[in-house]
């Protein structure tokens, strides 16, 4: 099934590695080898500049230990190639990315570069100088420290300026590696083969009428598929294909280039649906906005709730600011500082607000879920642009309500639908091009979404077919400039660029891989780590039940569907259309304003009740899922953020210790199933659909005793089993026992009050 | 109305698979809050053997989560039991009286407002209970008096329930720990370390156990001399020895240095004998206290080992605070988690309690001890008296070093040895049966230790044979007074009160139902030192203990991973069985692909929770 599409990166790159030798030891070799070294280059990859005798510090200390090698800058990455030959053991790294190794940094993955005295380097500032020490912080949270002081001055200057130029200074999209990579790979051929494949069995790309129709049918929606924009005639900013409420007229479609058009996201089984839209312009002579609302309301029982996310959720700038503060906790260039900050960890975390933003997004999604699930009203979420928080919230809502999106392919399809086709401005939000005028628009919105998914996943592990590792890898892939998925701002943008760059006939656009083609980055074994061993498919019996009943979730609220029982609502729009127009004419739509039933501002307490009611029902992993939003339940995504920090790796521990045991047994069960199948034995269980691999990779690794799993698995596998424990270094200045406790601290354990000292 | 149905009280589905998820915690501790009981309403709460009903009363329970609930409370000599009359599902409370720390009257006969007249009960297990009664006719007088009397029996000349209990178990928990056996397991005595019975009658040290291990070269006379220089006579004795490198963990109390900086040649020589035993170049003395406290202790006659006096020793302070600081810290924690979890700035609030910070200091202290031992160096650990912080440090270090203590029975031995045997003052720290709730001697040191253990099990989910349930059960019975295990301050008091013959051990309960406390993921790995990461990044609040009364949080406490694993194990056994049946009936040679190693398992499928090597 997984054909070797990635023949491009086929020749396995020479693995890079970390060695623990002091510079002195290296120097004793007198002359470092003069031979020009470079990593195995990818197709289309070109070396810009390089410097030898660069010292790469081993990450975890101030002791200046490190390893010498060549530092290069190519059109794809910054790469460090050690002078030492890799040892046999290190070659067998399981979880190896085929595109870049552990000492490679894709150019778009570089976050910040610091020079001597931790001075932040900005592009354009460096003319003839270069620092003796260069620290690179990566967007995947790795930290590299290089010393250039052993290199030839010329080389050092060149490599430093090269790296700064290619990593920090503005460039054109054409310069992104994806284009030269794709032109130089045999990829397109196999890709088009693959696309047929995708079409049938794999990720739904939402780039055709059929995909959209299919998804609407699946959810039993009853809306209108719009194909009038297939050549971006309506608007280059609108998706190529999309779905709107039935009542939207042709005239409405063409007006305002689609601004204010309610775009269908998902239909609830009750018939109501979720729509999203870019905010409607304020002054509208012909009340487009009113007509659009009516159209949405008509979708199901004339009820609609609107939610302007710009009013209630943080802005993209807030998100960026908060994340910038948050990520600093994990970009560690010195262990002493790390331990110093340890005591204030919780309050620092609290103050940066990142977890709170996650909580707000989840809460907003729960509110929308409540409207759909409990009240069966249509919901229209909106924001300026309609493709940031709308994407976050609508995707989260669908994850909570629809178990299909919790499968691996379902999830990928969801990202395609809501984010890629949905027109999230990946390019602007990541600002891969370092354009000065786009600095403002940079924001990790998609990462925020993944964070929210991770919260759901860690609270309801068995509900998701994909693993934590999958999410982490996906979050890393945003910064690998090879995949079309994350390179463009919308469908129109993608189409025009790929067409323009096509080396072939004018008709067929340049084919680049999508991130979903995981074989470009990982081999099959490594991809096994993307599946969650806790996941079970929905038992088959249920589907038959489903046909006879309405498709109700087990953990559904038995609350009466108010929409069905209160017919007066039906006339709401007709009767009060005039009123509504007046309201709309005067001010912006505010929160739930049009909701006839819940005008109370106590959303948070209502969400709480909704959660509690849901919680008392037995949990069905294939039904409605809600996150717990209490303080202790929203947590830090340990795997993503702590994986590179040596001092906090739990050797031989972490959740992976348990999960690998589950994987192991799962492998055995699957093997037994196969044997029983051969005997023609029919099994009632639901483990059949799981991937029929004997053992998952984690189990293989676990079984191999030479490599120990740690909490950083699979990103770091420790080779060294005997080790010194990390002992916090800042214990002494730690306890600032305050106020009341002050004198208690001075007391003796078993003395009465008289023994106060 | 007395029922002797101990077994039914313990009844729970044998197999976790078939147990409804909520019931995971077993019977006694109020986890059934929202769960309906099998028994008839009110009339027949199944009692423990020896348990007697004292009073029943109509009452309103002011539940912080579901509001005021009418129902009936009954009080026995062991528990307070409440069941709501009209709520659906019924809300029940089942609180051992031992868990009650304080009973107060709330409001007066003339108080206004609904439900303003009643009782306010503060529990030792992180919850408070409020009951309201009718305002007329002194309706609360009898129940208040009875509660006060039976919750604090020792203050009223009554016996603790452990002495009244008639419970019988298959296993006798008192036989779990035999000091000589445990020392023999460690390879003791040997040519460097000997067993002494000098304390057989508690004459050397009244808070120490009777059997002690001391340097071979130290004579009984030496011990007596050292005794005079150590606070409360708690001389350095061996707690644990590393089988390979012979490094030892010794524990003791502070030296009686005093303001004048007294020295004691015998003590100095004695510590040097400890150092010498395995040729350690420098003996490391870990003083658990912050150095300022150690200095301050000189004023009251204590102190620490000075550099001049102890030439071959290095002294390290571990900065762990005293029992008062810990008590206040947990109090603050309760404030932010009960009844409701602090909503705004949860993390900052959590940090301001310092609870996890203290946990971190204790764990990192233990890591340092374990690391020294692994490196082949002997250590001496003490604090002031050597029964609080010292016990935490030595037992945690031993948990890291010795995989035996990570088994179900080994852990019981560890507690019996380091905590119960060496005189952690459970009676004073917990205040069993004592009405003086403000007693300054009370402190959650043992709770803190169990929290540290939980942190370790969290970081190493496959390294411990026991599960979280065991830890919660231990903490519940730390307070309950149903078992004798945690009663009294020291062995001497236990002997005087004939504890072992008159009460039942907690381990009788646990060991009669081992599978309930077993961690299915347990993978024995002997000789592996376990170093947890003592960083706030990895320490987390033990939500399923501290916030378990909150129904919103409770949902999260099951481990779906565990459930899934057990399901898969069962499935594997089922398939193996089926496959074997097929093979028996199917004589065709095709069926021979069943791997050899799995065949023996098929014979007895249910027993095989352990690792199976199937060469696929």
From TrEMBL, chain A:
Alphabetized InterPro entries for the sequence: MTMR12-like_C (IPR022587), Myotubularin (IPR030564), Myotubularin-like_Pase_dom (IPR010569), PH-like_dom_sf (IPR011993), Prot-tyrosine_phosphatase-like (IPR029021)
Residue span, Myotubularin phosphatase domain: 206-641
GO cellular component: membrane; sarcomere; sarcoplasmic reticulum
Keywords of the record: Cytoplasm, Sarcoplasmic reticulum
Localization of this protein: Cytoplasm, Myofibril, Sarcomere; Sarcoplasmic reticulum
Pfam families: 3-PAP (PF12578), Myotub-related (PF06602)
SUPFAM superfamilies referenced in this protein's UniProt entry, alphabetically: (Phosphotyrosine protein) phosphatases II (SSF52799), PH domain-like (SSF50729)
GO biological process, one term: phosphatidylinositol dephosphorylation
Family in the record: Belongs to the protein-tyrosine phosphatase family. Non-receptor class myotubularin subfamily.
Entry protein name: Myotubularin-related protein 12
Gene symbol of the encoding locus: mtmr12
UniProtKB/TrEMBL annotation, chain B:
A GO biological process held by the record: mitochondrion distribution
Composition bias type Polar residues, residue spans: 599-609
Gene Ontology cellular component list: filopodium; late endosome; plasma membrane; ruffle; sarcomere
Protein topology in the membrane: Peripheral membrane protein
Domain Myotubularin phosphatase stretches: 173-546
Main localisation: membrane
Residue stretches making up the Tyrosine specific protein phosphatases domain: 353-399
InterPro entries documented for this protein: GRAM, Myotubularin, Myotubularin-like_Pase_dom, PH-like_dom_sf, Prot-tyrosine_phosphatase-like, Tyr_Pase_AS, Tyr_Pase_cat, Tyr_Pase_dom
Origin: domain of life: Eukaryota
Reaction equation(s) it catalyzes: 1,2-dioctanoyl-sn-glycero-3-phospho-(1-D-myo-inositol-3-phosphate) + H2O = 1,2-dioctanoyl-sn-glycero-3-phospho-(1D-myo-inositol) + phosphate; 1,2-dioctanoyl-sn-glycero-3-phospho-(1D-myo-inositol-3,5-bisphosphate) + H2O = 1,2-dioctanoyl-sn-glycero-3-phospho-(1D-myo-inositol-5-phosphate) + phosphate; 1,2-dihexadecanoyl-sn-glycero-3-phospho-(1D-myo-inositol-3,5-bisphosphate) + H2O = 1,2-dihexadecanoyl-sn-glycero-3-phospho-(1D-myo-inositol-5-phosphate) + phosphate; a 1,2-diacyl-sn-glycero-3-phospho-(1D-myo-inositol-3,5-bisphosphate) + H2O = a 1,2-diacyl-sn-glycero-3-phospho-(1D-myo-inositol-5-phosphate) + phosphate
Positions contributing to substrate binding: 322-323, 383-389
Region (Disordered): 586-616
Enzyme class: hydrolase
Biased composition regions of type Low complexity, renumbered to the chain: 586-598
EC number(s) given by UniProt: 3.1.3.95
Family: Belongs to the protein-tyrosine phosphatase family. Non-receptor class myotubularin subfamily.
Protein known as: Myotubularin
Species annotation: Oncorhynchus kisutch (Coho salmon)
């Amino acid at each position: 099934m997984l054909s070797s599409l990635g023949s491009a990166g086929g020749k396995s790159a020479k693995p890079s590695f970390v060695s623990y030798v002091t510079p002195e030891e290296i120097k004793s070799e007198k002359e470092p080898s003069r031979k020009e070294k470079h990593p195995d280059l990818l197709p289309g990859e070109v070396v810009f500049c390089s410097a030898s005798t660069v010292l790469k510090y081993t990450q975890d200390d101030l002791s200046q230990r490190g390893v010498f090698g060549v530092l290069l800058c190519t059109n794809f990455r910054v790469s460090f190639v050690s002078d030492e030959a890799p040892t046999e053991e290190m070659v067998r790294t399981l979880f190896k990315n085929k595109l870049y190794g552990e000492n490679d940094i894709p150019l778009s993955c570089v976050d910040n570069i610091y020079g001597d005295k931790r001075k932040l380097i900005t592009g354009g500032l460096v003319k003839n100088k270069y620092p003796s020490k260069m620290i690179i912080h990566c967007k995947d949270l790795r930290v590299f420290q290089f010393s250039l002081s052993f290199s030839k001055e010329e080389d050092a200057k060149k490599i430093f300026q090269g790296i700064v130029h290619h990593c920090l200074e503005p460039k054109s999209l054409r310069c992104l590696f994806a284009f030269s990579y794709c032109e130089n790979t045999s990829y397109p051929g196999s890709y088009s083969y693959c696309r047929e494949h995708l079409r049938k069995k794999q990720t739904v790309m939402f780039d055709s009428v059929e995909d959209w129709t299919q998804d609407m049918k699946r959810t039993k929606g009853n809306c209108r598929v719009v194909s009038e924009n297939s050549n971006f005639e309506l608007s280059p900013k609108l998706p190529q294909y999309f779905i709107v409420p039935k009542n939207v007229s042709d005239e409405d479609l063409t007006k305002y280039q689609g601004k204010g058009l309610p775009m269908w996201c998902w239909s609830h089984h009750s018939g109501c649906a979720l729509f999203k839209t870019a905010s409607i312009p304020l002054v509208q002579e012909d009340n487009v906005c009113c007509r659009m609302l009516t159209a949405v309301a008509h979708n199901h029982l004339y009820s609609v709730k609107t939610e302007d996310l710009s009013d209630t959720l943080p802005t993209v700038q807030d998100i960026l600011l908060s994340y910038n503060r948050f990520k600093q906790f994990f970009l560690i260039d010195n262990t002493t500082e790390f331990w110093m900050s340890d005591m204030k960890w919780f309050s620092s975390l609290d103050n940066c607000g990142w977890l709170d933003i996650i909580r707000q997004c989840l809460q907003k999604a729960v509110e929308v879920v409540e409207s759909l699930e409990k009240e069966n009203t249509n919901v229209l979420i909106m924001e300026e642009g309609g493709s940031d928080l709308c994407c976050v919230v609508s995707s989260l809502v669908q994850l909570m309500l629809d178990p299909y999106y919790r499968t691996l392919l379902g999830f990928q399809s969801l990202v395609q639908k809501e984010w890629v086709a949905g027109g999230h401005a990946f390019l602007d939000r990541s600002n891969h091009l370092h354009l000065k005028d786009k600095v403002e628009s940079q924001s990790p919105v998609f990462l925020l979404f993944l964070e929210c998914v991770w919260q759901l996943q860690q609270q309801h592990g068995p509900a998701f077919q994909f693993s934590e590792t999958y999410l982490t890898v996906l979050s890393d892939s945003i910064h690998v400039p090879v995949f079309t998925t994350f390179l463009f701002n919308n469908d129109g943008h993608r189409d025009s660029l790929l067409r323009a760059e096509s080396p072939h006939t004018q008709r067929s656009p340049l084919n680049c891989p999508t991130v979903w083609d995981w074989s470009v980055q990982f081999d099959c074994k490594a991809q096994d780590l993307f599946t969650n061993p806790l996941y079970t498919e929905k038992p088959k019996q249920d589907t038959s039940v489903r046909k006879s009943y309405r498709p109700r979730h087990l953990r559904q609220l038995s609350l009466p569907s108010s929409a069905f029982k209160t017919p007066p609502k039906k006339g709401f729009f007709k009767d009060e259309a005039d009123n509504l127009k007046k309201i709309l004419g005067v001010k912006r739509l505010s929160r739930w304003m049009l909701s006839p039933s819940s005008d109370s501002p106590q959303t948070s307490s209502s969400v709480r009740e909704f959660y509690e009611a849901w919680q008392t029902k037995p949990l069905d992993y294939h039904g409605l899922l809600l996150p717990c939003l209490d303080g202790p339940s929203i947590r830090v995504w340990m795997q993503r953020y702590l994986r590179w920090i040596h001092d906090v790796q739990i050797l031989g521990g972490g959740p992976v210790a348990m999960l690998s045991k589950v994987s192991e047994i799962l492998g055995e069960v699957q093997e037994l199933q196969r044997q029983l199948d051969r005997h023609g034995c029919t099994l009632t269980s639901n483990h059949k659909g799981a991937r029929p691999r004997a053992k998952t990779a984690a189990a293989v690794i676990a079984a191999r005793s030479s490599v120990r799993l740690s909490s950083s698995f699979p990103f770091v596998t420790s080779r060294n089993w005997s080790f010194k424990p990390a002992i916090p270094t800042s214990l002494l200045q730690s306890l600032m026992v305050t106020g009341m406790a002050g004198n208690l601290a001075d007391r003796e354990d078993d003395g009465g009050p008289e023994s106060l000292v | 109305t007395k029922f002797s149905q101990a077994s039914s009280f313990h009844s729970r589905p044998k197999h976790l698979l078939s147990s409804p998820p909520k019931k995971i915690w077993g019977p006694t501790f109020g986890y059934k809050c929202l769960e309906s009981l099998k028994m008839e309403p009110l009339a027949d709460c199944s009692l423990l053997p020896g348990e007697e009903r004292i009073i029943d009363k109509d009452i309103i329970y002011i539940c912080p989560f579901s509001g005021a609930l009418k129902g009936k409370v009954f009080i026995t000599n062991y528990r307070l039991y409440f069941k709501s009359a009209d709520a659906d599902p019924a809300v029940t409370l089942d609180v051992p009286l031992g868990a009650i720390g304080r009973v107060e009257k709330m409001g007066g006969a003339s108080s206004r407002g609904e439900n303003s007249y009643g009782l306010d009960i503060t529990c030792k297990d992180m919850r408070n209970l409020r009951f309201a009664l009718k305002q007329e006719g002194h309706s609360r007088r009898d129940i208040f008096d009875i509660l006060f009397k039976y919750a604090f029996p020792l203050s009223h000349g009554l016996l603790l329930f452990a002495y009244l209990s008639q419970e019988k178990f298959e296993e006798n928990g008192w036989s779990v720990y035999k000091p000589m056996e445990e020392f023999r397991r460690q390879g003791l005595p040997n040519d460097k370390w000997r067993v002494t019975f000098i304390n057989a009658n508690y004459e050397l040290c009244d808070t120490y156990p009777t059997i002690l291990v001391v340097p071979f070269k130290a004579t009984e006379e030496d011990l007596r001399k050292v005794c005079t220089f150590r606070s409360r006579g708690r001389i350095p004795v061996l707690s644990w020895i590393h089988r390979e490198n012979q490094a030892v963990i010794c524990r003791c109390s502070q030296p009686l240095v005093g303001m004048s900086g007294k020295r004691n040649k015998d003590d100095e020589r004695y510590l040097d004998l400890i150092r010498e035993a395995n040729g350690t170049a420098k003996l490391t003395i870990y003083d658990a206290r912050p150095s300022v406290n150690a200095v301050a202790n000189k004023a009251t006659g204590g102190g620490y080992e000075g550099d001049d006096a102890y030439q071959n020793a290095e002294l390290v302070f571990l900065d762990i605070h005293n029992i008062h600081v810990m008590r206040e810290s947990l109090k603050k924690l309760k404030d932010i988690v009960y009844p409701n979890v602090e909503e705004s700035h949860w993390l900052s609030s959590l940090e301001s309690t310092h609870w996890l910070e203290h946990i971190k200091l204790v764990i990192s202290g233990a890591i340092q001890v374990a690391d020294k031992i692994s490196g082949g160096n002997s250590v001496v650990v003490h604090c002031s008296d050597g029964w609080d912080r010292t016990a935490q440090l030595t037992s945690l270090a031993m948990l890291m070093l010795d995989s035996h203590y990570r088994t179900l029975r080994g852990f019981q031995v560890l507690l019996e040895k380091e905590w119960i045997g060496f005189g952690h003052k459970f009676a004073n720290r917990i205040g069993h049966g004592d009405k003086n709730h403000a007693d300054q001697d009370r402190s959650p040191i043992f709770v803190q230790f169990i929290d540290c253990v939980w942190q370790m099990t969290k970081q190493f989910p496959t390294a411990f044979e026991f599960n979280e349930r065991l830890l919660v059960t231990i903490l519940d019975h730390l307070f309950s007074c149903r078992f004798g295990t945690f009663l009294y301050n020291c062995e001497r008091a236990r002997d005087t009160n004939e504890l072992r013959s008159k009460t039942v051990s907690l381990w009788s309960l646990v060991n009669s139902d081992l599978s309930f406390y077993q961690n299915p993921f347990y993978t024995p790995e002997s000789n592996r030192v376990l170093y947890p990461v003592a960083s706030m990044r990895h320490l987390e609040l033990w939500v399923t203990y501290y916030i378990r009364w909150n129904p919103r949080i409770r949902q999260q406490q099951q481990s779906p991973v565990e459930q899934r694993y057990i399901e898969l194990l069962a499935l594997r056994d089922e398939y193996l069985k089926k496959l074997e049946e097929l093979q028996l009936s199917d004589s065709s040679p095709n069926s021979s692909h069943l791997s050899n190693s799995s065949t023996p398992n098929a014979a007895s499928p249910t027993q095989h929770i352990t690792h199976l090597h199937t060469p696929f």
